[in-house]
Specification:
Aspartate Aminotransferase, domain 1; 426 residues; Aspartate Aminotransferase, domain 2; alpha/beta
Amino acid sequence: MAELLADDRAHVWHPYASVTDPLPVFPVASAAGVRLRLADGRELIDGMSSWWAAIHGYAHPVLDQAVRTQLDDMAHVMFGGLTHAPAVTLARTLVEITPAPLEKVFFSDSGSVAVEVAIKMALQYARGTGRLERTRLLTVRRGYHGDTSGAMAVCDPDTGMHHLFTGLLPRHLFAPAPRPRFDEPCAEHDVADIARLLDEHQHEIAAVIVEPVVQGAGAMRFYAPGWLRRVRELCDVHGILLIADEIATGFGRSGELFGCDHAGIGPDIMCVGKAMTGGYLSMAATLCTDEVARGVCASEAGAFMHGPTFMGNPLAAAVANASIDLLLTSPWRSRVRDLQVWLEQGLAPARDLAGVADVRTLGAIGVIETREPVDLRVIQPLLVELGVWVRPFGRLVYAMPPYVMTCPDVAALAAAMVEAVARTTG
């Protein structure tokens, strides 16, 4: 293990980390169920679902078998000019389970690229429908949509993690973050700012992009479905596309299959990823309506100008089909409801801590928001010592556990989070 850590430090650059002053890392030997087994023999309850993707836990026999079976046929084949059953089946399933009227599916290999694809679709649609001046996007603050350049440009420009790249990125329009909480009504004044921006800039806005109901890595906030419903209506009034970034919220995480389902709306373009393959392989998809697809193809290129090398990868598509089927044939709604209740109960004591600003839960998401940023060098090893894997950032100590986690494990996870916050904040 010492040699592995030495080689890691010498050669591996981890996400959001410095190579000159690296954060501690913990070698994983194996993973099964909801537990990670470290190389030193310790077992950790996984509260992160490997960044929200491993919704069925690890080493699930159904998903393992799906990969093995697909390997007997092919691991990969290019998608340009070729097709195959796993990808076609997956596309058909995604159209069936996502909100109407989404009909076309474009595959990619990560959530960030799915957002890039959505943005390019919106811009090319504007050109194809004769609105050449529509080259900007409108979004809200506190949002996060990915780390590639186009996606960074619609993340929060001031408080987000990408402010260093401001000079590189296109200048889009930002409304305030949605004010009403998830369980609150949305009044007309709550959408006044975004309504004003749409009215003033409708001639140059190609699309509005938002994370439905849950603002994820930018804030871990839950907002009122009524707000999203009003934004859909405003987009319709102005003839502007609505892009729903469901990378984090898709496949049941918030208590509905998709965040848009809370509001009963359908977007013009939707991005999905993360949990789609159950955390087994990297894959994402961007869905759009027939109208958007026809508008894109009416532009001077005559086709959508994007094509990832690993688009529609058969292994990823096969395990995605198995993961979605496993989800839909399971009692996932009751499991997610139980997780919310258990997280609420377990995290409640954090409300009495002086260093805590808020505690909130929605579906299989539990958040402790601290008053000051946590010190990852201190709190991360402490959480490991307490037997859980949770990856805080900024002022947020949060969990997104696998849906199969039991009540005792959720209780242990939440207790460790509360204790770690109590021991590291004022």
